[in-house]
């Protein structure tokens, strides 16, 4: 069994297609298929169910891919620890972040890191906290920057607390509440509001606050990003909900503190068994930045 075969099998599992997996790895499809077949023969069991349109993992395949990711991550760590001691790192840096991250200047940190490590290929994607947790846990991301209310990231993940913050309400420049500085949940229960999509951590933060207070709420628009929440609020669609650190960066909106507002915790997360030396090096940069400010 070779590391190359593990990479091939993982690519097929992620793409659910041999041709796409071969294209992603820049190898001939015939070579990739042959290596996967050899791997299955060596293991004595099929890893994939092949159809004319799609490839699905068998139960053995699901287990194999999970452990294969851990083996590859361990190999990357070993390579990094042996060859990169005292020098720059190389490889791919994969980061997922919520759009409302303000506890650190992620863009500036990525720039600093890439300038110091020119051999690194950086990938930064924005998503909801739940999706980032899933991808870090699966090894698809090295690091994640997430916000959670009254919960911690799942077992098996390392979490570094970056800060805490309150949820606030925001209104547009023509809203009658611009003369106020604070509101209550009871005030908010009687007006149309704008929030993040149902099921996301950001949405649960506000939904749970109303539920715990025994109050109803009316959400007239759901937005997938803080920027869209702000735009809809500025247009007068309703009262928006944003983390305080994001709301203060929106000059066109009026901020209203909420009595007994829920507080969320922002974390940097990684999975020790899967994070690469490049990911660990970036996490170290974040730690040094936080210690020095």
Could you characterize what this model shows?
The protein has 293 residues and is an alpha/beta fold. The protein folds into 3 domains: 3-82, Arc Repressor Mutant, subunit A (Orthogonal Bundle), CATH 1.10.10; 89-158 and 266-292, D-Maltodextrin-Binding Protein, domain 2, CATH 3.40.190.10; 164-265, Periplasmic binding protein-like II (D-Maltodextrin-Binding Protein, domain 2), CATH 3.40.190.10. It has 11 helices and 12 strands. The chain has helices spanning 3-15, 18-25, 29-43, 59-83, 106-116, 129-138, 185-189, 201-212, 226-234, 244-247, 277-292; strands spanning 48-50, 55-57, 91-97, 120-126, 143-149, 158-171, 182-183, 192-195, 218-222, 239-243, 254-258, 263-270. The strands form 2 sheets. Strands 3, 4, 5, 6, 7, 8, 9, 10, 11 and 12 form a 10-stranded mixed β-sheet that branches. A two-stranded antiparallel ribbon has the order 1-2. Strand 1 (48-50) and strand 2 form a beta hairpin. Helix 1 (3-15) packs across helix 2 (18-25) and helix 1 (3-15) crosses helix 4. The mean pLDDT is 87.
């Amino acid at each position: 069994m070779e590391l190359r075969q593990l990479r091939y099998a993982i690519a097929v599992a992620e793409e659910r297609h041999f041709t796409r997996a071969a294209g992603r790895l820049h190898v001939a499809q015939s070579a990739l298929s042959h290596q996967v077949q050899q791997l299955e023969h060596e293991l004595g069991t099929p890893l994939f169910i092949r159809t004319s349109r799609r490839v699905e993992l068998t139960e053995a395949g699901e287990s194999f891919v999970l452990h294969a990711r851990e083996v590859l991550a361990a190999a990357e760590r070993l390579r990094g620890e042996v060859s990169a001691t005292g020098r720059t790192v190389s490889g791919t840096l994969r980061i997922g972040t919520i759009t409302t991250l303000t506890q650190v200047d992620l863009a500036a940190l990525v720039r600093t890191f890439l300038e110091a490590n020119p051999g690194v290929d950086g990938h930064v994607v924005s998503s909801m906290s739940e999706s980032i947790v899933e991808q870090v846990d699966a090894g698809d991301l090295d690091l994640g920057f997430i916000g959670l209310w009254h919960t911690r990231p799942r077992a098996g993940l390392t979490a570094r607390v970056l800060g805490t913050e309150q949820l606030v309400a925001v209104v547009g420049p023509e809203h009658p509440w611009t003369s106020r500085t604070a509101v209550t949940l009871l005030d908010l229960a009687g007006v149309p509001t704008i929030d993040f999509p149902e099921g996301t951590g950001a949405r649960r933060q506000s939904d749970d606050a109303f539920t715990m207070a025994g109050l109803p709420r009316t959400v007239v628009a759901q937005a997938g990003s803080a920027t869209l929440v702000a735009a809809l609020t500025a247009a007068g669609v309703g009262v928006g909900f944003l983390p305080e650190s994001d709301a203060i960066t929106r000059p066109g909106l009026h901020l209203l503190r909420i009595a007994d507002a829920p507080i969320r915790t922002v974390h940097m997360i990684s999975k020790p068994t899967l994070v690469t030396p490049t990911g660990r090096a970036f996490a170290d940069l974040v730690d040094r930045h936080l210690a020095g400010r």
